[in-house]
Specification:
By secondary structure, this protein is an alpha+beta fold. Helices cover 33% and strands 28% of the residues. The strands form five sheets. Strands 14, 15, 16, 17, 18, 19, 20 and 21 form an eight-stranded mixed β-sheet that branches. A five-stranded mixed β-sheet has the order 6-13-8-9-11, with no helix packed on it.
Length: 469
């Protein structure tokens, strides 16, 4: 930990000291499973820290090598991890299939890809660094389930016993027999390492004759089809054709299992992290490959531009105008970051920023307008007249011009909305105001948006436009 102590000192230079102290305690004192795939939002909530400051601290800790990032593709049904990688570049498949839910999903960055933090083995060695050696229950807790599943801390084993009939650790290349008595129920034979499942619909008159079943785990066959069996004795022959240990488990699909999987908590999504300024600053050129196209079902875009910037340069001169515009960029960047957003790029005197939710974009817009008023008041001039446009909708995350960017009609509409605005105006679409958090925020501010009759150039669909006074 001597080298880690030095790194903690460096970390304090870029993160809140109290958060760094909490991270240091976590690494020193927490049980192993608390340091595998850390849910940073749960950590922040438990310690009473601000989400964005905590995310920034963990990102800087990753930069220093204290933690490693993991991008995990989740099943939206059961919350299990279908795939995991050290980079978002690992998300390559057009569809991910969950054997436990017997369903396929097209990956989106909203709720299907989580980002977690695992302590680096040079910082502290934990059991999950060798997942093949984890006890079965801990494998499920630390490797299979995503960080959004709120598993019980102390009584996980007793909870599992409420639905687990039998389980087995099967070494690589080995065969084994599971002998058990089937109850009348819907039973699942699930193997979390290869993500294989066999459904057994156990019903009808009980039998004393032994039924048999053979299952091969080889990362290819998923055994989706349900088999009809009768209550009574069952002999399952299992074969492990993989290079690692497998963990076949026989479970009853009862209320205890479903209730455990229903216990959810917020987690850091890929969408939110891509809209985090600290992440963009650290990983700007390393988020996506140039040929990747990843869908986001909902992202909020904010565009700003300075009205009359050309006249400003002519009036005060290039050097003074440049300093003033740079000051304005610094103010806007700070506001965007404080509202959980990120500046995607600047175009001339304009800013393109993203926010995970519409309410944060509106909050940022109001703060931007007030900040420009204050700057103008301090200067005794009206040089900084900001025009702002906001829109929310689906888009595609791409790598463009060596930076993580976004593409799609939502981006185009947000830009067009900004072009409608004149000086000091904030224009937004009905899609933004339809968001409950956004409408509640505006109501709390005593602000009532005004309908604006306008047509967006190059956009055929009918879009409601509102001005925020």
């Amino acid at each position: 930990m001597d080298a880690a102590q030095t790194l903690f000192g460096v970390l304090r230079e870029s993160a809140q000291p109290e958060i760094v102290e909490a991270i240091e305690r976590l690494i020193k004192e927490a049980p192993d499973h608390k340091l595998c795939r850390v849910n940073v939002l749960a950590f922040a909530a438990g310690e009473g820290f601000d989400d964005e400051q905590t995310i920034a601290a963990f990102l800087h800790a990753c930069r220093l090598g204290l933690f490693d990032l993991s991008w995990n593709v989740l099943c939206p049904g059961c919350g299990g991890v279908l795939d995991a990688g050290a980079s978002l570049k690992s998300v390559r498949s057009d569809e991910y299939t969950c054997a436990l839910c017997a369903a396929g999903y097209e990956p989106t960055l909203d709720e299907m890809v989580e980002v977690t933090f695992t302590v680096n083995p040079r910082t502290r060695r934990i059991a999950a660094h060798n997942p093949d050696q984890l006890p079965p229950i801990e494998y499920f807790r630390q490797i299979y389930w995503g960080s959004g599943i709120d598993l019980p801390e102390g009584d996980l084993e007793s909870r599992v016993k409420e639905f687990l009939i039998e389980d087995l650790e099967l070494p690589a290349g080995e065969k084994a027999i599971l002998s058990l008595h089937l109850p009348e129920a819907f039973v699942i034979v699930f193997e979390p390492v290869t993500h294989a499942a066999q459904f057994l619909d156990v019903k009808g008159e009980a039998t004393t004759e032994r039924q048999t079943l053979t299952l091969v785990f080889d990362r290819k066959h998923r055994h989706h089809e349900a088999l009809d069996l009768r209550p009574g004795p069952l002999r399952i022959s299992v074969e492990n054709h993989t290079e690692v240990r497998t963990l076949p488990s026989v479970c009853i699909a009862n209320d205890a299992l479903h209730d455990m999987m229903k216990q959810r908590r917020p987690f850091l999504t890929a969408k939110r992290l891509l809209s985090n300024q600290t992440f963009r600053d650290i990983y700007q050129t390393d988020a996506l490959d140039v040929d990747q196209r990843l869908k986001i079902t909902s992202l909020t875009f904010l565009f700003t531009d300075l009205r009359g910037s050309t006249e400003l340069y002519e009036r005060v001169g290039d050097l003074a105008a440049f300093d003033l515009v740079r000051t304005h960029f610094g103010v806007l960047n700070g506001i965007v970051a404080a509202e959980a957003g990120a500046v995607v790029k600047t175009i001339g005197d304009a800013v393109m920023a993203t926010f995970p939710t519409p309410d944060r974009a509106i909050a940022a817009a109001l703060r931007m307008r007030e900040a420009m008023r204050q700057l103008n008041s301090e200067r005794g001039s009206e040089d900084l007249l900001l025009k702002i446009g906001i829109h929310e909708g689906p888009c595609i995350a791409v790598n463009l011009n060596e930076r993580q960017d976004y593409f799609g009609q939502t981006v185009n509409i947000a830009s067009r909305v900004q072009h409608l605005a004149t000086s000091r105006e904030i224009f937004t679409t009905g899609a933004v105001l339809d968001d409950p958090l956004a409408s509640s925020f505006l109501a709390g501010q005593g602000v009532k948006p005004l309908a604006h009759d306008a047509t967006l150039r190059g956009v055929t669909e009918n879009i409601s436009i509102y001005a925020i006074p």
